[in-house]
């Protein structure tokens, strides 16, 4: 769920990260990031905002305040004027401008934010690239013969581990409980997708064996990063039950 919502901007909760080399004698980290979803004109854009500079925090403060400072800066960005990438996660990398600047100037709104005060001599520039850390969902192959379940049919009841849940779903006309394992992970790294795919292959190879967990179906959906709800696109696998 979102931690902060405006008319067009949704800052995703639990996505704030900062430089692991942040030292005790520094007032703020040199790099931090947060994920947002930007809604405009019926479209939905997924963006990771990476800030590679110092905002201007004069003395060391807690994590919450550092995150709020970044939130305030993000709300000042005019995302309509940024060439975001469709159907994926864009990474908006913000840096202090060099002279002469070699990247375009970051478009900012005119409205002020009480939680953010920009130094008068500061100019930010940006670059756009595909987020290499995004969740990479396996493509669903319609010819695979795998039984499928729509994500809308699943109701999570209990979280068992980081990406394993107890769920209920209607299956063969009955409400049943299942174990649901997702591709997405709170500490996702690209090898998690590879591991998931190998686990799925192993379960298929051991289908019918006693004392081995059995696959009911893969959970499929249009890509969560789809920009236009009306555009065509392949389905992806979100997990398995």
UniProtKB/TrEMBL annotation:
Entry keywords, A to Z: Kinase, Transferase
Q: Which GO terms describe its molecular function?
A: kinase activity
Identification of the protein by name = Kinase-like protein
